[in-house]
Specification:
The chain has a seven-stranded antiparallel sheet. It is built from three helices and twelve strands; from the N terminus they run E-E-H-E-E-E-E-E-E-E-E-H-E-H-E. Helix 2 runs antiparallel to helix 3. It has 159 residues and is mostly beta strands. The protein has a single domain (12-151), classed as Jelly Rolls.
């Protein structure tokens, strides 16, 4: 059984992510008894993910602002502002955002995905080490530890 959890915006952990963008961990396993992770991402045009899959959690996206392309298995889908995506575990997927600004909610059940973001990203509460960046090897290692598998680069735009 989990207990209620209430947080203000200032309580959310913020992480630097690929390209200097920001992820906010709104809910994690500690605050939800392992039930759900919710992350809010502020991204820009061209932000994308490698083709990958999750072994341990289902993943959902809600595009609060912006639009993008989602590859799910062999299918390519355009998703606009207000759109949502549900990805059951073990389905290969990737995304690329095509609008200048993106405000995205990522919801994962059960929790655990936050460990991937924390392992690969950088907590903004501390100083930025000189030369720090998220590298492909760091993403691959964080993914392996979290039960994800990176299958390859992001698909081509016309794929």
């Amino acid at each position: 059984m989990s207990l209620a959890y209430i947080a203000q915006a200032a309580d959310h952990q913020q992480l630097e992510w690929i390209g200097g963008h920001t992820l906010e961990i709104l809910l994690d396993g500690k605050s939800t008894g392992g039930q759900v992770t919710v992350v809010r991402s502020h991204l820009a045009e061209g932000s994308d993910s490698p083709l990958h899959l999750h072994r341990n959690e289902d993943e959902m996206f809600v595009l609060l602002r912006g639009e993008g392309l989602f590859w799910v298995g062999d299918e390519r889908h355009e998703v606009g502002e207000g759109g949502s995506v549900f990805l059951p575990r073990n389905i290969p997927h990737a995304y690329r955002f095509t609008s200048p600004e993106v405000d995205l909610l990522t919801i994962c059940t059960p929790s655990g995905m936050e460990d991937f973001f924390r392992a690969a990203g950088r907590d903004l509460r501390g100083p930025r080490p000189e030369g720090w960046e998220i590298t492909i090897p760091a993403l691959v290692e964080a993914a392996k530890r979290g039960g994800q598998e990176i299958l390859g680069p992001p698909p081509a735009m016309d794929a």
